[in-house]
C-alpha cells in the first residue's frame, strides 16, 4: 500500500464497471451478526432503505464495512451496535455513509440513517455522505479497496430515471450529499470539482 494518501477517491460508475472492480468480502444485511466486515477489501449491494457505513483508520490502515438493515428491532439496538462497532475498529478518522429512503412502508429507514449520521458526526470529522435515495426504486452498491483508498459506487434509480453519470444526476439521486475534506469525487473516472462553498455542506437536489 505504498503512496496511499488515505484521502479517499469516491468514484461513481455504471453497473458493468462496478462489477468488474468488485473483489474482497461480501457484506450481507441479514442476520445482524453478519452485517459487518473488518477487511481491506469489501463490498455490498442493494442498499435501498438500509444504511451502509465504511469506517477507515488511516493510522492503523484498517477498514470496517457495515450494511445495516432498517428494521424496528435494529433501530432499537442501533446505539449498542455502533458502540460495538467502535470496538471493532478503534479511533476511525474517515467515514462514508450511504443509503436510506423516505417510504411509508419503511418507517425506520430515515430515523436509522439520521441517528447513524448524528452519532458518527460527533466522533468523526471527515465524513462523506450520500443520504436518502430520492427515487422510490433507487438503490446503491458500494465497494472499498484499502490498497488505493478508493470507493466504487453504483447508484441506480430505476426504470424511469437516469442512473448517476454526471453531477446533475448525482444531485438528483440523493437528498443530502457531503464530501469530506480531502476526499475527491469522480463520476466514471472523471473528477468533479464542487464549488468550494458547497463542498462541506449539504447539497439540495434539483427540483
Structure write-up:
The protein is an alpha/beta fold and about 210 residues long. It has five helices and 13 strands. A seven-stranded mixed sheet has the order 2-4-9-10-1-12-13, with helices on one face. A six-stranded mixed sheet has the order 3-6-5-7-8-11, covered by helices on one side. The longest helix has 13 residues, at about 110-120. It has a single domain, classed as 60s Ribosomal Protein L30, Chain: A. Mean pLDDT is about 90; it is low at about 1-5 and about 200-205. The chain has helices spanning about 15-20, 70-75, 80-90, 110-120, 165-170, and strands at about 10, 25, 35-40, 40-45, 50-55, 60-70, 95-100, 125-135, 140-145, 150-155, 175-180, 185, 190. The termini are far apart. Helix content is about 20%, strand content about 35%.
What is the name of the CATH topology? 60s Ribosomal Protein L30, Chain: A
Q: Which CATH C-level class is it? A: Alpha Beta
Q: What share of residues are in beta strands?
A: 25-35%
Indicate how many domains the architecture comprises: 1
Succession of helices and strands? EHEEEEEHHEHEEEHEEE
> Which term fits the overall shape?
globular
Number of helices: 5
Mean pLDDT: 89
Tell me the major beta sheet: 7 strands, mixed
Helicity, in percent?
A: 10-25%
Question: Which consecutive residue ranges, at least 5 long each, have pLDDT under 50?
Answer: 1-5, 198-207
- Count of DSSP E strands? 13
Derived from helix and strand composition plus strand pairing, the structural class reads: alpha/beta
Oligomeric composition of the shown chains: single chain
- From the coordinates shown, what is the CATH architecture? 2-Layer Sandwich
Please give the radius of gyration in angstroms.
16 Å
Strand order of the largest sheet: 2-4-9-10-1-12-13
Distance between the termini: 43 Å
